[in-house]
Automatic annotation (TrEMBL):
Its cofactor is heme. The keyword Metal-binding applies. Keywords: Heme, Iron, Membrane, Metal-binding, Monooxygenase, Oxidoreductase, Transmembrane, Transmembrane helix. The chain crosses the membrane at residues 21-41. It comes from Paraglomus brasilianum. The keyword DNA-binding does not apply. GO terms for cellular component: membrane. It is found in: Membrane. It comes from the Eukaryota. This is 9662_t:CDS:1.
Length: 506
């Protein structure tokens, strides 16, 4: 995957450049959108909506300022309007909620996180999973994570093997510029092991699907940002089109998964029927998907299984590997933590039961959590209102379909949640408080309430296992010993690889 650079968000979208690109077709589209919005607005029932922050230019609203300086915009609005206000961005009204109002949304069944995500990125449309009942998250929560505990030693070995292979011995110091790619591959292979089992995860084509599917989606989204500026819906259509005819269509991935899984599934299905209770049930995700499909459809439904798998790949690999990259950047650029973290690792010996030792790594856990907490995203966790109108406890109402996002700046800088100097990195501030994967008001990395990410224990452990291996094996540092800040674009922190030196530890 040599030229698969991981770009997390559009990097160079200067607002004004977009205007030069606007053609007559686009103008007509804008006009159409404007009329549609107008009709829509004028027909809606009158609600006591949160204040819409005034803006100068119709159609543009706060978009340009948001693209230029999302942090400044959010701070200014929060000072003026408090914990709830609305912004007009990308031809849509978004409501921004802070503190307790955000928690109300997380806890309410009148909001859907799944729909919120789908609105930001139409994954279900792209891969065609909307046709099937249920969803991948529920499947995992209800069935998979009960069994996953037995898999950690397998994942650990897989991580170790790939770190050896991709980074090497480093007897001589080795400069690595693309840890983003390495992180993606390491995590993709570990997840592939868990998801498709030990046999198939050695298959290069399968690993490639795991490692590239998420990256491709991100790249296409980046290319489509101009469409997004015109209207989010246009972006959706554009992305769907690209995937339908492009090289990297989800259909191709689905076909490949089906081709590879078919012999295994057929064999397992036969064995299950033939040996009944005497059959030793393999502990991997494909077994679960097989059983789920039989329960649901009475047969092996390959398309549905492939859809679920692609959703899980998208959801798990990209975020986990981004977090690993971010944590390692923090580790490499903050030498004051090396001694403590290494010392903690001395209790861990390879081959020891990892489950037991994992929970003893309190400092590492805290470091990963702090690193995530200060990752720098500004607006998070889009939730979509699903009831005719939702009334917050402060009396403000939002209509059905409104996207409400959490204001991360107020969350991050709240000292009653995180302790003193909440805006400064303090690696061990969470020691002997709640672990990274436990959600709570002071720990929102995986959402909260009923929408909390079901894969959080798995993700958190994967990151810690990989970090543990890296810390014990190498001295890792940035070139100048510093940890530069990532740029923020469109409210998202643009994580990137820092040039890192790896050297074998004595
Ligand atoms: C900090 O968080 C708490 C709990 O959510 C909230 O009640 C409080 O208003 C927040 N403080 C500030 C200054 O935002
Ligand atoms: C914002 O929130 C998300 C999850 O809710 C977290 O991962 C991130 O690090 C938070 N903080 C900042 C400043 O980005
Ligand atoms: C949630 O939705 C239900 C059904 O539409 C509605 O009766 C209820 O008032 C809503 N809750 C809030 C807090 O708006």
């Amino acid at each position: 995957m040599s030229n698969e650079r991981i770009v997390f968000e559009p990097a160079d979208l200067a607002g004004c450049a977009t205007w030069q690109l606007i053609s007559p077709e686009v103008f007509v589209l804008c006009l159409g959108a404007f009329i549609a919005v107008f009709v829509y607005w004028s027909r809606r029932p009158k609600l006591n909506e949160p204040p819409l922050v005034p803006y100068k230019y119709p159609l543009i609203g706060h978009t340009l300022e948001y693209l230029r300086d999302s942090e400044g915009l959010l701070k200014r609005c929060h000072e003026q309007y408090g914990d709830m206000f609305s912004l007009y961005l990308f031809r849509e009204v978004y409501t921004i909620a802070s503190n307790d109002l955000a928690y109300e949304m997380f806890r309410s069944t009148n909001f859907s996180f799944k729909e919120g995500l789908e609105r930001m990125f139409p994954l279900g449309d792209i891969i065609g999973s909307k046709a099937y009942p249920g969803n991948a998250a529920v499947l995992l929560k209800d069935r998979f994570y009960k069994h996953v505990d037995d898999c950690y030693s397998r994942i650990y070995r897989e991580l170790q093997h790939n770190i050896d292979q991709l980074i090497g011995d480093c007897e001589e110091p080795k400069l690595i510029n693309n840890f983003d790619e390495i992180s993606m591959t390491i995590i993709a292979r570990a997840m592939a092991n868990l998801f498709v089992g030990e046999e198939l995860c050695k298959d290069d084509e399968i690993v490639k699907v795991f490692a590239t599917f998420a990256t491709t989606l991100i790249r296409v989204r980046k290319l489509s940002s101009i469409a997004y500026l015109i209207h989010p819906r246009l972006q959706t259509e554009y992305i769907k089109l690209v995937f339908k005819y492009g090289d990297n269509s989800p259909q191709k991935h689905k076909d490949l998964l089906t081709k590879k899984l078919k012999p295994i599934f057929e064999k397992r299905y036969q064995d299950m029927q033939q040996f009944g209770n005497e059959w030793k049930r393999p502990d991997d995700l494909i077994q679960l998907l097989l059983e789920y499909s039989i329960d649901m459809f009475g047969k092996i439904h390959y398309d549905c299984i492939a859809c679920r798998m692609l959703t899980l790949i998208w959801a798990s690999i990209h975020t986990t590997s981004a977090n690993l990259l971010n944590t390692l950047n923090d580790y490499a650029g903050r030498s004051e933590y090396w001694n403590d973290l290494r010392k903690e690792q001395e209790v861990i010996t390879d081959g020891l039961d990892f489950d037991l030792t994992m929970d003893r790594m309190e400092k590492l856990d805290s470091f990963v959590k702090e690193s995530n907490r200060l990752m720098g995203h500004i607006l998070m966790l889009p939730h979509c209102a699903t009831c005719p109108s939702f009334t917050f406890s402060n009396g403000y109402q939002v209509p059905k379909g409104r996207l409400v996002l959490m204001n991360n700046l107020t969350y991050m800088s709240n000292s009653s949640l995180h302790g003193d100097n909440p805006e400064t990195f303090s690696g061990f501030r969470h020691v002997s408080k709640s672990p990274f994967a436990r959600v709570g008001r002071d720990s929102m990395a995986f959402g909260l309430g009923k929408h909390a990410c079901p894969g959080r224990w798995l993700a958190s452990r994967n990151i810690k296992m990989a970090m543990s291996i890296l810390i014990r094996k190498y001295e890792i540092s940035t070139l100048d010993g510093k940890r530069p800040k990532y740029p923020i674009k469109r409210g998202i922190s643009v994580l990137g690889p820092l040039p890192l030196t790896f050297k074998k530890r004595k």
